[in-house]
Design brief:
Layout lengths: L2 H7 L7 E2 L3 E2 L26 E6 L17 H10 L1 E2 L1 E3 L5 E3 L2 E6 L5 E6 L13 H11 L19 E2 L4 E5 L7 H5 L5 E2 L19 E7 L3 E6 L12 E6 L3 H9 L5 E2 L4 H7 L5 E4 L5 E7 L9 H9 L3 H9 L3 E3 L22 H10 L6 E6 L6 H12 L5 E6 L5 H5 L5 E4 L6 H8 L14 H12 L3 H18 L2 E7 L3 E4 L2 E2 L18 E2 L3
Length: 525
C-alpha cells in the first residue's frame, strides 16, 4: 500500500504487535512448514491416491456442511480443506497469512485494512476479490448462523471495498487484534452470492480440495483442487468418515477402513506408539480438559460451591491416569501457552478438606450433583469417572449419566448445570468473545458480569500490549476466583497414521494444520 492510499484511507504504515508476540509482517506467507512427523523416511512426495480419515462427527440430523455453521470436528475438517481463511492460527496461536496479504489498523484500531493475496481463484476459476470478503462477512453476521458471534465487532454499514483486492473494515468498538478474530473457527471466505450450503449444489472454495459428495453424519468425499493457490496438492481424493465414538474410530483405523485416525484416546496412543506400522502424531500443545458449572443455576450459583468443586479434583492424578503422559495440569483458566495467558496465578491443588469447609459454610454438606458424560472425545469418560471418585473425599457425590456421544456438545454441554466442555485452542480475545461476555453465543457457564464485559472491551481495544496484558491478567483473576470452569488439564490430542502416509501435519486442533490434508500423500505399499 503506497503512502497516498494510506493518507486517503487513514491507515499508516505502523507496526503493531499481533497476539502480543509478533508483528504481522513476520508471519509465514504460505501454508508454513508441514511439520510432518509422518512419512519422514518415505522418500519424495508421491502424487495420487485416496486418503481415508476417521474423525469425530455428529448425527445425520445435526450434521452441517456450511462452513459458517459447522461446529463438529468433521465439519471443521471439511471446511478447512474446501475453503480458506484470511489468516489462520499457527500451533502457538500466532498468525499466518492465508488469503490476506496484509492487515493494517488505523491509529486506534477502529478501522482495519485487509489487502488480499493477488492471483487466488476459486475451484471454478473465478478470481477472489473484495466482493467475496464482503459477502462472506455479511453471511457470517446472519443471526441465524453459528458464525454470527465471530465478527460481532464489525460494523458492516461502514465497511467497504477499496478496489478488487482491498477491504476497509469498520469496527463498532476499537479492536487491537482483528487477526485473531479472523482466524476463528467459522471465518471462512466463500464466493460472492453463495446461498444455502447443504449439499444440494456443490459449493466452490479456495482450499486444497473441492467437494464431490456429502452424506450427513456419515462421510464426505473431496477431490483435489487443480487451481489451489498454495499447491501442489498430492492426493487425488480425501474421504472424511465420521465416527462419534473414540474406540470405534481406532477400530476402523486398525481394521483398514482408514489411513488416518483423528482424536484417538490416550491409552490407544500409548499402545499404538509401539506398533511399527503406525505413526502416532502428537501436537506440540494441549487442549483444555474441563468441566463447566453454570454459575446461574443452583447449587453452582454460590461461589463457595464452585470453589469446593475445583478443590475436589486431583489434577496430578488426572494427568497420570487419564492422559498417560500426554498432558499437563490446568489451573482453571483457559489458554495455556496463548499470548496474555496468566501463568503466575497460584496453582490450585487437591484439597478435599477445604472443599468440605466451603460446602458446610454454603449449606451444601453431602452435596449431590449429576454429570452427563459420553465417549465424545478422548478422556471424557475417564475424567468423569475419576472425578466422581476423587470428589467423594470432599463429601461430594457425582452421579454420572451416560448420554449419546454424537449429540453431547450440541444438546448437553453448557445446558446441564454441570457438563464437560472442550474448546480447542484460540486467542483469549476470540475465546472470551465467544464464551464469556454476557451476550456471547457459547456462554456455557452463564457468566454474565457487566463490569467484566466492560474491562474485556478495554482489553480488546488496547493497542499498547503492556496495558493489554495487564487488563487480561485482571480478567483471568476474576475467572480463576469466581468463574465456572474446573479446568484440570491441558492434554495433547494425538492422531494416528499408517506408516505409508506422508506429510501429516502435527497440528493442534483449532489451528490451520490440524486435519489439513494439503500436504498429505500416500507412498507405494
Amino acid at each position: 500500500m503506497d503512502n497516498s492510499t494510506s493518507a486517503r484511507s487513514g491507515f499508516g504504515r505502523r507496526t503493531f504487535l499481533l497476539a502480543g508476540a509478533l508483528t504481522l509482517g513476520a508471519i509465514a506467507t504460505g501454508c508454513g512448514s508441514p511439520g510432518s512427523p509422518s512419512g519422514a523416511a518415505l522418500g519424495p512426495p508421491r502424487p495420487g491416491g485416496r486418503l481415508r480419515s476417521v474423525i469425530a462427527g455428529r448425527s445425520a440430523s445435526a450434521d452441517v456442511l456450511d462452513p459458517h455453521q459447522a461446529g463438529s470436528s468433521a465439519g471443521g475438517a471439511v471446511s478447512k480443506n474446501v475453503w480458506d481463511k484470511l489468516v489462520a492460527y499457527n500451533n502457538d496461536l500466532t498468525l499466518r497469512y492465508r488469503l490476506a496479504q496484509s492487515l493494517e489498523p488505523n491509529a486506534d484500531g477502529s478501522e482495519w485494512r485487509i489487502t488480499l493475496r493477488p492471483g487466488v481463484v476459486f475451484s471454478d476459476g473465478t478470481p477472489l476479490t473484495s466482493r467475496d470478503v464482503l459477502w462472506s462477512f455479511e453471511r457470517m453476521l446472519d443471526p441465524a448462523k453459528s458464525s454470527s458471534g465471530d465478527l460481532a465487532a464489525v460494523d458492516m454499514s461502514r465497511t467497504r471495498a477499496d478496489g478488487d483486492l482491498a477491504v476497509v473494515v469498520a469496527m463498532k468498538t476499537p479492536l487491537a487484534d482483528f487477526g485473531s478474530v479472523l482466524a476463528g473457527w467459522y471465518c471462512y471466505i466463500v464466493k460472492d452470492g453463495t446461498g444455502t450450503i447443504d449439499g444440494s449444489e456443490l459449493p466452490v472454495g479456495t482450499g486444497p480440495f473441492a467437494l464431490v459428495r456429502w452424506s450427513p453424519g456419515d462421510r464426505t468425499l473431496l477431490r483435489r483442487n487443480e487451481r489451489y493457490w498454495d499447491g501442489p496438492v498430492y492426493l487425488d481424493e480425501v474421504e472424511i468418515i465420521q465416527i462419534a465414538e473414540t474406540e470405534a474410530r481406532v477400530n476402523a483405523f486398525l481394521s483398514g477402513e482408514a489411513e488416518v485416525a483423528h482424536e484417538i484416546s490416550y491409552l490407544q496412543a500409548s499402545t499404538l506408539a509401539d506398533d511399527p506400522n503406525v505413526t502416532v502424531v502428537v501436537p506440540p500443545a494441549g487442549l483444555m480438559g474441563a468441566f463447566q458449572m453454570r454459575v446461574d443455576t443452583a447449587p453452582f450459583d454460590d461461589p463457595r460451591v464452585r470453589q469446593a468443586m475445583r478443590l475436589a479434583v486431583d489434577r496430578e492424578a488426572m494427568v497420570e491416569s487419564v492422559y498417560y503422559g500426554y498432558a499437563e495440569v490446568g489451573n482453571d483458566i483457559y489458554g495455556k501457552g496463548a499470548p496474555f495467558y496468566h501463568d503466575t496465578l497460584p496453582q490450585r491443588s487437591y484439597d478435599p478438606q477445604r472443599a468440605r469447609e466451603l460446602l458446610r459454610a454454603a449449606g451444601h454438606e453431602q452435596l449431590t450433583v449429576t454429570l452427563p458424560t459420553a465417549d465424545g472425545s478422548p478422556g471424557m469418560l475417564e475424567s468423569a469417572t475419576l472425578f466422581a471418585e476423587q470428589a467423594k473425599a470432599a463429601g461430594i457425590t457425582i452421579k454420572l449419566e451416560s448420554v449419546p456421544a454424537d449429540t453431547y456438545f450440541s444438546q448437553v454441554s453448557g445446558k446441564a448445570p454441570l457438563s464437560h466442555v472442550g474448546w480447542w485452542n484460540y486467542s483469549l480475545d476470540y475465546f472470551y468473545g465467544q464464551t464469556m461476555t454476557s451476550d456471547s453465543p457459547s456462554n456455557g457457564t452463564g457468566w454474565r458480569r457487566p463490569d467484566w464485559d466492560a474491562e474485556f472491551a478495554q482489553a480488546r481495544a488496547a493497542m499498547d500490549p503492556v496495558r493489554r496484558a495487564e487488563l487480561y491478567r485482571e480478567l483471568q483473576e476474576q475467572l480463576w476466583n469466581e468463574g465456572g470452569y474446573i479446568l484440570f488439564s491441558f492434554a495433547k490430542r494425538p492422531d494416528a497414521a499408517k506408516n505409508f502416509v506422508g506429510g501429516v501435519r502435527d497440528g493442534v486442533p483449532g489451528t490451520d494444520d490440524w486435519a489439513n490434508y494439503a500436504t498429505t500423500w500416500l507412498a507405494e505399499q
